[in-house]
Design goal:
Helix content is about 10%, strand content about 35%. It has about 180 residues and is mainly β. A six-stranded antiparallel beta sheet has the order 5-6-7-8-11-10, with no helix packed on it.
Amino acid sequence: MIASAVFLVSALTALSAPIALENGALEIQVQPETFAIVSFRALTESNFVMPLPVSGDAAQAAEWLDPGGLVTDVLPSGEQDAALRRGPAAVVEREEGRIVLEGPVSAVSGLRLRKEIILGPRGDPSARFRVTVFATRSEAQRVYVRNTVRLPLCAWRGGMVPYGLWREPNPFIRRSSNRLTTG
């Protein structure tokens, strides 16, 4: 009976499966509970980003959290602002090759983040990632958006570059405006 109760509690606090977008060339997975992109990969390659393990309990807590993967901070206030960094997010729009996530309003800054991911046409190894900051208060604020990606330490296979050895041009990603394209 106790083992059953422990299993039930752990099942209730587990994260849901990430939501996957796929276009025949790329797959991107997002985790709404942590407001992060947890997988970005060409279908023939391994994951380009490195998510960190997050328990369901940690995801439901109100504290700041680093889920790894690709996350967004709003500076100067957002780096330690849990609501902006880690959500949880709601899926506000979803269609083939496109998802829009919206985080909660921050009690600290009154800001809200919206993240939109749009895959290129079927078979096109490209995607767009757009982050929009909304102010819910009337006072003017100057903020900066910072997207941070955690890379695997040993990732030479598949054209990926280990952390600390990034070089331009990167053999895996070409950057043009806000459009990421695998090489």
